[in-house]
Amino acid sequence: MNTAQNKQTILNFFERFSAGDATNALTYLDSDVMWQAMGIKGDLPVSGTMDKNGIGELIKMVKEAIPNGLELTPVGWTAEGDRVAAEFISYGVLTNDKVYNNPYHFLFQFSDGKILKIKEYMDTLHVKSIFVDA
């Protein structure tokens, strides 16, 4: 696949993720996908590593917490070969009326047109203040 197709795959994945549609979101992922959300020792609920089943559970958890959907807006791309670096901004209103608005940097690696690896960098303090300290 070329870089434009890889970027479109990421957009399609996040569109389904944002809608809480785990079944269709997971179709964009390789069966051996690993998502690593950065955070010391994996202490936050969304830090550490997740396999495909864990990603499906994350999508469901986000849908429950943010029932109107989590908007993920791309703001920058860098792509080369099977790797795409992407900056996103999220926005969503939780059931407790808190606003989740976090900047992200993702590094995606592709294999045969599917997302094989995801590394996620975000404001972990914001995650803690919205989801843990609620």
UniProtKB/TrEMBL annotation:
It comes from the Bacteria. Pfam families: SnoaL_2 (PF12680). Residues 12-116 form the SnoaL-like domain. PANTHER family: BLR2505 PROTEIN. This is SnoaL-like domain-containing protein.
